[in-house]
Structure of Pyridoxine 5'-phosphate synthase:
Amino acid sequence: MTGEGGNPWAKTGLPRSEVLKDGNPAQDAPPCRLGVNIDHVATIRNARGGPHPDPVRAAKLAEACGADGITAHLREDRRHIRDEDMERLRAELSIPLNFEMAATPEMVEIALRTKPHAVCLVPERRMERTTEGGLDLTTHHASLEPAIRRLSDVGARVSLFIDPEEEQIRMAAQLGAPVIELHTGTYAEAALATDKKALTETHTALREGAELAESLGLEVHAGHGLTFWNVQNIAAIPEVRELNIGHFLIGEAVFMGLDGAIREMRKLIADARTGMLL
């Protein structure tokens, strides 16, 4: 590991026998893509109210460093990404743009105009620091269904950000979205708290959720709270096709540069696919 600082998760790494179920099935799985979320470049920019640092410049650097896609969350309060950022990202990127948003009428209309490669629907609460959990599809399926349909009609691949719970995964399949993104935040919190029991339980839930989702015909992505030290347990799940990571990479860029942070993350993900775990 080339970054600065210690490894607070080192003592809670799961045994290979728990991560690599049935040997190493991920070895035969397709490569796991890395989507880089550039929201917090915009957070730093907005702290001073000027144009620097430019999140679009960061996205283009991430593209040059091997990112497979760029994620940006346009929130109702515009706390980081702004409307003009989304327009520029759509116009200037050569890799897929994943437009993260709440399924509000305003955001749906913006996405319909922007026509990104993908749209990830997430819950949003005004007072939260960051997205705190997955969508409750069983409660909100009636309001989500028309948004999914309209976005799909303009060619966007719609994903639903959900917790790894059976009822949520089955409802996602019923709603017709082709992709789910499993919320890894609870797993990341267990790693940070060095809670081995919770870490094992949350990893098992993610692994079993990914297996169920793939059996239902869904493509599986995952993200939230992933770092150099906890990503491999998730990347080793063969059904997971993409990981979306932002806050950690932007923070680690302070110490090793964005180029170095992205390349290190890509290496860790690729190594996990071949069973080379830290």
Remarks:
- The first strand starts at residue 33 and ends at 37.
- The first helix runs from residue 16 to 19.
- The CA atoms of residues 77 and 126 lie 7 Å apart.
